[in-house]
Structure formats: C-alpha cells, structure tokens
Amino acid sequence: MAAMSMYDDSFGSALKRGYLGMPVALRRILLLNVVIFLVQSLLMAFGGGAIVNAVIATFGFMPEWSTSLMQPWRLVSYMFLHGSVLHVAFNMLWLWWMGRPVEQQLGSRNFLVIYFGSGIGGALINLVFSPFFSATITIGASGAVFGMMVAFAMLFPRIPIMLLFLPPIEARFLVAGLIAIDLLFISSADNVARIVHLGGALWGYVLLKMYFQGYNYDLWIEQIKQRFRSRSPRGSSASTGSAKSRPASGSMGRGPGRPVKGNMRAVTDAEIVEENNQGELDRILDKISKSGYEGLTDKEKRLLFELSKKN
C-alpha cells in the first residue's frame, strides 16, 4: 500500500509539473476545453441531453448573417464546444503538439491573437460561403487549431512530425496535406466543417505574415488594456517603439505596432551562421529525433527557426 501511495504521488507530481510547464495561454485553453467537454459528457450521462443541446443551440456558431449580427458571442463560444471524445481529443492533441513551440516563440498574447483570430476568421469565412453549402450549426476548435498548425509550419517548416505507421514528415508538407484533404472533400456530406478549417488556416497564415511584417499584437492588446484602465502606458519597452527594438521582416522579436520602415533590420546571432547552415540544421534535427523538441536549448530553438526560414 505504501509503495502504491508513493507511485500515485509520483504520477500526480509528474502530471502537475507537466501541466504547469506548459505556456500559460496554451495551458488555459486546453483546460477550459477539457473541462467544458467533461461537463457536457456528465450531463449526457445523467440524462441532461436536452441541456447540452440547448447549450449548443445557444453558443454554437450558426452561419446566418442575422444570427451572427445579433449574437456575436457565438464567434468565440463555438470553439469551446465539441461533439465527441475524438473531436476534442484530436483538436487538443494537435494544439498541444504544435501550439507549445508557437507560443514559446511568439509570446502568449501573439499566440492568443493568432489562435482566436483563426477561429473567428474561419467562422466568418464559413458565413460568407454559407449560401453555397449547407448551413448547419458548427462547434469545435478546429478552425483555431488549423490556424495554429499553419503558424507552426511557417515557423518551423522542416521539423519532422512522427505519425503512426508513417515515416517522419516535415511540418510544411504535413500541414499542406491536411489542408489538401479538406479541399478535396469540401463538398462531401460528412458533417465536418471543412470551410471553417480552411478559413482558419487562411487566417493563421495572414496573421503570422502580418506579424513578420512588424505588426505586434502584444502591443495592441497592451494599448487596449491601458485605455480600459484610463491611464497611458509607462515604463513598458513595448510602448517605446524605438528603432532599436524593431525586428526585421520575418524576425521573431516583438516589433512595434506597425511595419518596419526603410532598410533597418535587427541582426540576431543566428544570422551570423553562413557556410555551416546545413550542418547545424542537420545536427539539430537529429537531436529532435532522439530527444524531442523539448530537448533543445533556447539557443538551438532560435537557431532552428532562423535556419528553417533560410532553407
């Protein structure tokens, strides 16, 4: 019994450490989705199916202009409802695998803008194309997750992804293949919101490209936050907007809230690498295959990002 108690404590501690070790925004999104789905499941198990259906009817996204205008909360709330265990499991697993390095690279606020921007954008594109397809209520985080997957593939295009029964596939090819599948089956009656997937992927691409061009969503959020507090931002490095802190187009440093002008560019230590680029990339990819992405040092992660862009 004592040994079993020690095992339970060890497992619980490891689980807690793993959860707390995740970036804060990703951690909260995963927790909220899982908790809401557990509540849905418990209600269904104890005869509360009518309640669950009412919640979906109230908070799911309905691709109708009148409903979207009068009930705009649906553009966000639909992302936290799921229809089955597989539905929520696949969405959260993809988000966990690919969202973590994206948030670590961009920061929590920029991560949240891309995540929710992709989810909302996917719903709006579904709304635009609803006259050409069957308009049914939509639930699930798939649009936001597809946007995050595109962001991951843009940031780390050559990182190999291991899937069951398949050889390692570079992130850029894997994500492109998933998008191609949705395009092929866009007219199928399989109850999958493929327009939302494609719309989320498109907005993930657009939002990250804007970030590369110098648009800092982190700064925008801070400015909105300060306005609500009725005071101007002080002592914040993001509010200075100095030329020294402006990143080059495509760099991952946090830039000001507008594109960099002129020929100014920030030089990082990764950009010094010249002749041995391919050798360094091969070494880092080999390390990932042995110990995973988390086995990389912060310097190796930055170097991987820079080399991936150049190759």
From TrEMBL:
The Peptidase S54 rhomboid domain, residue ranges: 71-212
Annotated localization: Membrane
One GO molecular-function entry: serine-type endopeptidase activity
Keywords: Hydrolase, Membrane, Protease, Transmembrane, Transmembrane helix
InterPro entries, sorted: DUF6576 (IPR046483), Peptidase_S54_rhomboid_dom (IPR022764), Rhomboid-like_sf (IPR035952)
Regions crossing the membrane: 30-56, 76-98, 110-129, 135-156, 163-186, 192-212
Region (Disordered): 231-264
Family annotation (SUPFAM superfamilies): Rhomboid-like
Protein name (record): Rhomboid family intramembrane serine protease
